[in-house]
Write a structure and sequence with these properties.
Blueprint: H1 2-26, E1 37-39, H2 40-43, E2 55-57, E3 64-69, E4 76-80, H3 81-85, E5 94-97, E6 106-111, H4 117-129
Parallel strand pairs: 3-6
Antiparallel strand pairs: 1-2, 3-4, 4-5
Length: 132
Protein backbone atom coordinates (compact mmCIF):
# COMPACT_ATOMS: atom_id res chain seq x y z
CA UNK A 1 0.00 0.00 0.00
CA UNK A 2 2.80 2.39 0.87
CA UNK A 3 4.53 1.77 -2.45
CA UNK A 4 1.28 2.38 -4.34
CA UNK A 5 0.87 5.74 -2.63
CA UNK A 6 4.45 6.73 -3.46
CA UNK A 7 3.96 5.73 -7.08
CA UNK A 8 0.69 7.69 -7.36
CA UNK A 9 2.26 10.79 -5.84
CA UNK A 10 5.13 10.51 -8.33
CA UNK A 11 2.67 10.32 -11.24
CA UNK A 12 0.68 13.32 -10.01
CA UNK A 13 3.82 15.44 -9.55
CA UNK A 14 5.09 14.59 -13.04
CA UNK A 15 1.74 15.53 -14.62
CA UNK A 16 1.64 18.84 -12.72
CA UNK A 17 5.19 19.69 -13.83
CA UNK A 18 4.41 18.98 -17.48
CA UNK A 19 1.28 21.17 -17.34
CA UNK A 20 3.11 24.06 -15.70
CA UNK A 21 5.90 24.02 -18.29
CA UNK A 22 3.38 24.00 -21.14
CA UNK A 23 1.41 26.92 -19.73
CA UNK A 24 4.53 29.06 -19.32
CA UNK A 25 5.51 28.52 -22.95
CA UNK A 26 2.02 29.47 -24.16
CA UNK A 27 2.09 32.89 -22.51
CA UNK A 28 5.30 34.02 -24.17
CA UNK A 29 4.94 36.44 -27.08
CA UNK A 30 7.67 36.44 -29.71
CA UNK A 31 7.83 39.78 -31.53
CA UNK A 32 9.40 40.29 -34.94
CA UNK A 33 12.25 42.47 -33.74
CA UNK A 34 14.06 40.88 -30.76
CA UNK A 35 16.18 44.00 -30.22
CA UNK A 36 13.33 45.70 -28.37
CA UNK A 37 12.13 42.89 -26.16
CA UNK A 38 11.13 43.94 -22.67
CA UNK A 39 10.67 41.19 -20.14
CA UNK A 40 7.54 41.83 -18.14
CA UNK A 41 8.87 39.54 -15.44
CA UNK A 42 11.47 42.17 -14.55
CA UNK A 43 9.12 45.12 -14.90
CA UNK A 44 6.48 43.66 -12.63
CA UNK A 45 8.77 43.84 -9.63
CA UNK A 46 7.42 47.37 -9.43
CA UNK A 47 3.82 46.33 -10.11
CA UNK A 48 2.97 44.14 -7.12
CA UNK A 49 4.94 41.25 -8.61
CA UNK A 50 2.43 40.10 -11.20
CA UNK A 51 3.23 36.56 -12.25
CA UNK A 52 3.05 37.20 -15.99
CA UNK A 53 6.00 36.16 -18.13
CA UNK A 54 5.90 37.58 -21.64
CA UNK A 55 7.98 39.64 -24.02
CA UNK A 56 6.71 42.93 -25.39
CA UNK A 57 7.80 44.56 -28.62
CA UNK A 58 8.26 48.31 -28.23
CA UNK A 59 9.07 50.32 -31.36
CA UNK A 60 12.04 52.64 -31.45
CA UNK A 61 9.94 55.81 -31.44
CA UNK A 62 8.43 55.03 -28.02
CA UNK A 63 10.62 56.26 -25.18
CA UNK A 64 8.30 56.18 -22.21
CA UNK A 65 5.28 54.18 -21.11
CA UNK A 66 2.92 55.47 -18.42
CA UNK A 67 0.48 53.36 -16.46
CA UNK A 68 -2.38 55.54 -15.21
CA UNK A 69 -4.13 54.66 -11.99
CA UNK A 70 -7.84 55.36 -11.95
CA UNK A 71 -7.70 57.11 -8.59
CA UNK A 72 -7.57 60.85 -8.02
CA UNK A 73 -4.84 60.74 -5.37
CA UNK A 74 -2.82 57.87 -6.86
CA UNK A 75 0.42 58.51 -8.69
CA UNK A 76 1.07 57.27 -12.20
CA UNK A 77 4.11 55.18 -13.02
CA UNK A 78 6.32 55.96 -16.00
CA UNK A 79 8.83 53.44 -17.37
CA UNK A 80 11.73 54.99 -19.22
CA UNK A 81 12.49 52.75 -22.20
CA UNK A 82 15.82 54.44 -22.94
CA UNK A 83 17.32 52.80 -19.87
CA UNK A 84 16.47 49.42 -21.33
CA UNK A 85 17.86 50.24 -24.77
CA UNK A 86 21.21 51.42 -23.38
CA UNK A 87 21.38 48.38 -21.07
CA UNK A 88 21.88 50.55 -18.03
CA UNK A 89 22.37 49.04 -14.59
CA UNK A 90 18.88 50.27 -13.70
CA UNK A 91 16.89 49.26 -16.79
CA UNK A 92 13.49 50.11 -15.31
CA UNK A 93 13.37 53.67 -14.01
CA UNK A 94 10.01 54.11 -12.36
CA UNK A 95 9.06 57.76 -12.05
CA UNK A 96 6.04 58.67 -9.92
CA UNK A 97 4.22 61.38 -11.82
CA UNK A 98 0.66 62.27 -12.67
CA UNK A 99 0.46 62.66 -16.42
CA UNK A 100 -2.84 62.44 -18.21
CA UNK A 101 -1.84 63.83 -21.60
CA UNK A 102 -0.37 62.03 -24.56
CA UNK A 103 2.87 63.50 -25.79
CA UNK A 104 5.12 62.69 -28.68
CA UNK A 105 7.18 59.53 -28.12
CA UNK A 106 5.12 58.78 -25.05
CA UNK A 107 2.62 55.96 -24.80
CA UNK A 108 -0.12 56.21 -22.17
CA UNK A 109 -1.93 53.08 -21.06
CA UNK A 110 -4.87 53.19 -18.65
CA UNK A 111 -5.21 50.34 -16.17
CA UNK A 112 -7.62 49.70 -13.33
CA UNK A 113 -4.81 48.92 -10.92
CA UNK A 114 -1.10 48.28 -10.95
CA UNK A 115 -1.63 44.54 -10.62
CA UNK A 116 -3.18 44.51 -14.10
CA UNK A 117 -0.57 46.86 -15.53
CA UNK A 118 1.56 44.13 -17.07
CA UNK A 119 -1.39 42.57 -18.86
CA UNK A 120 -2.51 45.98 -20.13
CA UNK A 121 1.03 46.52 -21.36
CA UNK A 122 1.44 43.23 -23.20
CA UNK A 123 -1.77 43.06 -25.21
CA UNK A 124 -2.02 46.57 -26.76
CA UNK A 125 1.63 46.68 -27.78
CA UNK A 126 1.50 43.26 -29.39
CA UNK A 127 -1.60 44.22 -31.38
CA UNK A 128 -0.49 47.72 -32.29
CA UNK A 129 3.09 47.13 -33.38
CA UNK A 130 3.07 43.60 -34.75
CA UNK A 131 4.20 43.44 -38.38
CA UNK A 132 1.65 41.62 -40.52
Amino acid sequence: MFFKLCFLSFLVSSVVESKSSASSSETSIKPDNPAYNITVELATKYFNKVSDFANVYVPQKINRITFLKNSKNGNDYTIDITYIRTKCLKPYNIIKKCRHSKRRHHEVIRCDNLREAAKCWVVPFERKYRKH
